[in-house]
Design brief:
This protein is an alpha+beta fold. It has 3 domains: 7-53, Uridine Diphospho-n-acetylenolpyruvylglucosamine Reductase, domain 2; 60-173, Uridine Diphospho-n-acetylenolpyruvylglucosamine Reductase, domain 3 (2-Layer Sandwich), CATH 3.30.465.10; 180-274, Enolase-like, domain 1 (2-Layer Sandwich). The protein has helices spanning 14-24, 37-42, 78-82, 92-99, 104-109, 112-118, 124-132, 149-152, 243-252, 257-274; strands at residues 7-10, 28-31, 50-53, 63-65, 69-73, 135-140, 143-148, 153-155, 158-159, 166-173, 180-187, 194-203, 208-214, 221-223. The protein has a 5-stranded antiparallel sheet. A 4-stranded antiparallel sheet has the order 11-12-13-14.
């Protein structure tokens, strides 16, 4: 199939993009890499009257860093991250996730902001950024605001973006030298959508642990209470998954027992990866 007719408008800056979205009154879609939107247009799952192209907005490809975090513009591609064109001091997890995302052709065009805004439950960046405690930087008619990613992604293919709002960037806290992380996913074939995702980040220097169960069919499940994972072992030195506790948690989220065991096994692999050395 071919997409329904639409007008393509290239925004020169964030303010113009916001104005175009407001003027379209719900009939516009933002487009950058189009790795998800393109197929949806061709299948006529979405039929916007206007596509607002944001790839020419220089502020959306910026990279800013300080000692605490790295901020990536929403139009930074996964390929940029794989090619180490962004700072990775304290954030080697970004490179590792980028190299395992889809295929190189997709990584060349697919943007980190587009992945987060699409909010596909099986998306690598959504689960990985949940684990890293990223914050979403939003611009809109009422100014700028910042949301933790777990408040930005509110459901499968749903975000907290309001009318006329645009994801401008993602702020990712650096990990300390003592931090550990693991990321593992189960796919039928490499590059395909994940059937289960497990991500874990433990940073004792900052007193943080974030465990994520992704690709559940809804928004990722974020666990910050590490006690549910270790069968009474309060130490972070040798963590392991409490299968019964996690199966109950997944069941409450509507995941059946067979899929639940896949998620438990994948999360254990992420823990094993994090504590391999």
């Amino acid at each position: 199939m071919k997409p329904a007719a639409f007008h393509l408008v290239r925004a020169g800056d964030v303010a113009e993009a916001t104005r175009l979205l407001i003027d379209a009154d719900g009939a516009a879609k933002v487009v950058a890499g189009a790795q998800s939107l393109g197929p949806m247009l061709n299948l006529r799952l979405v039929q916007p009257r206007i596509l607002v192209d944001i790839t020419g907005i220089s502020s959306l490809t910026r990279v800013e860093e300080d000692d605490e975090a790295v901020t990536l513009g929403a139009c930074i591609t996964t390929g940029n991250i794989e090619d180490c064109r962004v700072p990775n001091r304290g954030l080697t997890m970004l490179y590792a996730v980028a190299t395992r995302t889809a295929y190189r052709a997709v990584r060349n065009r697919g943007t980190i902001g587009g992945s987060v805004c699409h909010a596909d439950p099986a998306a690598d960046w959504v689960s990985a950024l949940f684990a890293l405690g990223a914050q979403c930087l939003i611009s809109g008619p009422s100014g700028s605001r910042r949301l933790p990613i777990e408040q930005f992604v509110i459901g499968a293919f749903e975000t907290a973006l309001g009318p006329g709002e645009l994801l401008e960037g993602i702020r990712i806290p650096r990990l300390s030298p003592s931090a550990r992380w693991g990321y593992y996913k189960l796919c039928r074939r490499p590059g395909e959508f994940a059937m289960a995702i497990g991500a874990v980040m433990s940073d004792p220097a900052h007193d943080r642990i974030r465990v994520v169960i992704g690709a559940t069919g809804g928004r990722p499940i974020l666990i910050e209470d590490s006690g549910v994972l270790r069968k009474g072992n309060a130490s972070l030195s040798k963590p392991f998954v409490d299968e019964a506790a996690l199966l109950r948690l997944l069941g409450q989220g509507g995941v059946d027992a067979i899929a639940g065991r896949q998620h438990v096994a994948v999360l254990q692999r992420a823990f094993d990866q994090a504590w391999a050395t």
